[in-house]
Write a structure and sequence with these properties.
alpha/beta, globular, 15% strand, 6-stranded mixed β-sheet, binds iron/sulfur cluster, 6-stranded mixed beta barrel, 746 residues, single chain
């Protein structure tokens, strides 16, 4: 049954020696001791949302298992433990010089140590005091509510997230753009419509009962390394792993996990994929409708389950039956035999988990993709039982917590009511700007003040020249951060740009909480920064937001300064956020918990009648433009390809820690990974330098690397490649299609 694909990587497995070498290198570095102390600190990992760390210890996962910390976590901690940037650095280098830095060079500058301001007409960032920051903020926030906006990432804890949205809503603004608008918004929107809940319905313990996992559009070995331990164990208990990805990632074929050292040493790693499908990017709906059609044909669907627990199921079955196999296979580029074999595996398994990441969501039909996966789960009865269900894999460690805390433009009605009561006035009904709308509004000069709690709004967007232009129309921009990033030097406001340095998660003077992708709430202990107060001037995000709120509102109707003690913030969260009631006692119990109402072990869903909704998913029309769409003659040599952008193995979101990607044989960030047949067809050579042109711009001097990627498809690194694309937008979620970008390579 197993169709292990050809390995074109120089590595024989994901994980393995490079990971162990990295741990050794960091352990032996001057930071080694501090690094290990931090790894053992009782707080959730800063990096991905798999939820490692917390009260049971830094190496413990949500199921209480040890040895679950990965090198990605080490990268993030090591970067936070860098020395502070010296006070004279920003006096020495002007903004034009700072704009020459790469993402990695920005991060390597070290920790931000003092509040900084860049005023219009000035060439240098200058140090200012916190008192000056508060005075500027007080003026900047006194605007019409529609003129202020925030943007955030999942770096901060729940308490800061909750206070951010409370501040914004107290000012009458719903403009709470968030990094999730650019990644998992289709998961939240789609799942909410189907099941009434927008997050994973599978807990880590539940996953450990699964006998089949379908992993779609995810490179978990790089982005969620400890998920790989679950896949290894799933295979060891006789289960199947089906990978769906146009690109073959060696770690999804075989993975050598440091958590299983003996097996890794003896066998060189564990087999991961039982089946590996490489569909055309953006065609997932066709593949999943094909799976449904085949499941019906093989009589592997659960009609009784559908009749009892779902709505619209008959339309979904009729629709799949009516679509021709030709239409399906031509759209997704897979054969009927491949789809049938996959459907058989799914249909014959007891408990199937469908997990996905941005290959699914960063598409022009991201919400439809999620619907089609949910339909497949429902048609096989794989939603609402232990070991089965839908599991979007979230990126940044607390990105899901931000949504739960109300940092969203799609605020749940119950939260809206509770916040209105708390604020003593109705929450504004004016729709807020999500991230893409925020950029569009800013470009039109509709935003005067922008408060960025973490993140890199500039570089995370497609079309970087538009992002730069848009941000330059905003009067005042605040960047709250721990380390510099590209946005601080390119995303400059019209009148002033402020960079405000804060403690990170393991340095806060108060306890905080975070939420993992599987709905588990971690409690983070207080900590201490390695930066000495004499050489730095950091505060907590909680202090920053509450002090701004206090200056704007005094004690009306909330005692904002009292909220500098996060115990009181958690009291408010318990009262206003459904499912989070237990956070009200966490300071007494120190007990981490699973949010109520999110994990479904029985097919009863939080919709008004308890049934899941099924939605028809139209097959996408995937056309490849010809050369003329790129403004070149038909006789110009070169090739049109579908580009997917993604992260390297030494990267977290827009932050690049290491430029080389050993697993893909990409020696630096300016490479394009292409199929060898495409290289030949276009008359190129491996390692030749080419220009890549997209709808948003072009990049020159890009090195061709031959790799295990579907013919007609290419891969480049995000965020560098963002300059190439204007990106189609999913109309349902506003998420850009970073994973299907037509480009011309010449
Ligand atoms: S898998 Fe994710 S949460 Fe776990 S240690 Fe690695 S980066 Fe951190």
């Amino acid at each position: 049954m197993d169709n292990l694909p050809e390995n074109k990587s120089n590595c024989n497995a994901g994980g393995g020696l490079p990971v162990i070498q990295y741990w050794i290198e960091k352990t032996l570095s001057p930071q080694g001791l501090q690094l290990w102390q931090t790894l053992n600190h009782k707080s959730a990992c800063l990096s991905c949302a798999w939820g490692t760390g917390g009260q049971k210890g830094g190496f413990v996962n949500e199921a209480g298992e040890y040895l679950q910390r990965c090198a990605k976590s080490v990268e993030a901690i090591a970067a936070e433990l860098q020395p502070g940037i010296k006070q004279d650095f920003f006096q020495k280098y002007n903004i034009s010089e700072l704009q020459q830095l790469t993402s990695q060079e920005c991060d390597d500058l070290g920790r931000l140590s003092y509040p900084l301001i860049l005023k219009s007409g000035s060439s240098h960032y200058q140090r200012i005091s916190w008192e000056e920051v508060y005075q500027i903020a007080t003026t900047a926030f006194q605007q019409l509510p529609e003129k202020i906006a925030s943007y955030s990432s999942g770096r901060s804890a729940n308490e800061a997230a909750y206070l951010l949205q409370l501040l914004m809503r107290s000012l009458g603004s719903n403009n709470l753009a968030d990094c999730s608008d650019l990644c998992h918004a289709p998961s939240t929107i789609g799942l909410k419509k189907v099941f009434g809940s927008g997050t994973s319905m599978v807990s880590l313990e539940g996953l450990q009962h699964s006998d089949c996992l379908v992993l779609i559009g995810s490179n978990a070995p790089a982005n969620h390394p400890r998920l790989m331990n679950e896949l290894i164990q799933l295979r060891a208990r006789g289960g199947k792993v089906i990978i769906i990805n146009p690109q073959i990632e060696i770690g999804l074929v075989k993975f050598a996990s440091p958590a299983f050292p003996i097996k890794s040493l003896l066998t060189g790693g564990s087999d991961i994929s039982s089946l590996y499908l490489q569909p055309i990017p953006g065609s997932d709906v066709a593949l999943f409708v094909g799976l449904q059609k085949s499941l019906i044909e093989q009589n592997l669907i659960k009609r009784e389950y559908l009749a009892s627990f779902t709505k619209n199921w008959q339309q979904i079955i009729d629709y799949a039956e009516d679509i021709s196999w030709d239409n399906i296979t031509n759209t997704c580029g897979l054969s009927q035999e491949e789809i049938t074999a996959t459907a058989y595996l799914i249909g014959k398994s007891e408990s199937v988990v469908f997990a996905w990441a941005m290959g699914i969501t960063q598409q022009a039909n991201g919400v439809d993709n999620v619907f089609s996966i949910a339909n497949t789960a429902l048609i096989t009865g794989n939603a609402g039982k232990i070991g089965a269900g839908t599991m979007p894999i979230r990126g940044h460690s607390n990105v899901q917590g931000f949504g739960s805390m109300g940092v969203t433009v799609n605020l749940r009605e119950e939260i809206k009511q509770a916040l209105s009561k708390l604020l003593g006035k109705p929450v504004s009904e004016t729709p807020g700007y999500h991230t893409r709308d925020l950029i569009a509004a800013a470009e039109l000069g509709k935003i005067n003040t922008l408060f960025c709690l973490g993140g890199n709004l500039y570089a995370a967007n497609p079309d970087l020249s538009q992002a730069k232009r848009a941000l330059s129309q905003i009067e005042t921009i605040f960047y709250v951060a721990t380390k510099p990033n590209l946005g601080h030097f390119h995303g400059l406001g019209k009148q002033q740009t402020l960079i405000l340095p804060v403690f990170n998660r393991f340095e806060n003077p108060h306890q905080t909480t975070t939420e993992s992708g599987n709905n588990f709430v971690r409690l983070n202990d207080v900590g201490k920064s390695h930066l000495q107060p004499g050489n730095s001037d950091l505060i907590s995000e909680v202090e920053l937001i509450t002090e701004i709120a206090h200056r704007l509102h005094d004690e009306n109707p909330i005692n904002w300064r009292k909220l500098q003690d996060t115990v009181y913030v958690r009291e408010l969260i318990a009262k206003t956020i459904p499912g989070y009631e237990k956070i009200g006692q966490i300071d007494q119990t120190q007990e981490e918990f699973t949010i109520t109402g999110r994990i479904f072990d029985e097919p009863k869903f939080p919709t008004f009648d308890g049934k899941a909704r099924m939605f028809i998913t139209p097959l996408p029309q995937l056309n490849l433009p010809d050369k003329s769409a790129f403004g070149v003659q038909e006789n110009q040599s070169g090739i049109v390809l579908i580009l997917g952008t993604g992260r390297g193995y030494g990267q977290h979101n827009t932050v690049v820690y290491r430029s080389a990607d050993k697993y893909r044989n990409m020696p630096h960030r300016h490479c394009i990974l292409m199929n060898s047949l495409d290289i030949k067809k276009a008359g190129f050579q491996q390692h030749q330098r080419v220009t890549v042109k997209g709808s948003g711009g072009e990049l020159e001097n890009i090195e061709i690397i031959s790799g295990a990627i579907r013919e007609g498809v290419a891969f480049m690194f995000y965020p560098e490649a963002n300059v190439l694309l204007t990106a189609e937008i999913d109309p349902e979620s506003g998420t850009p299609a970073y994973k299907r970008v037509p480009v011309f390579v010449y």
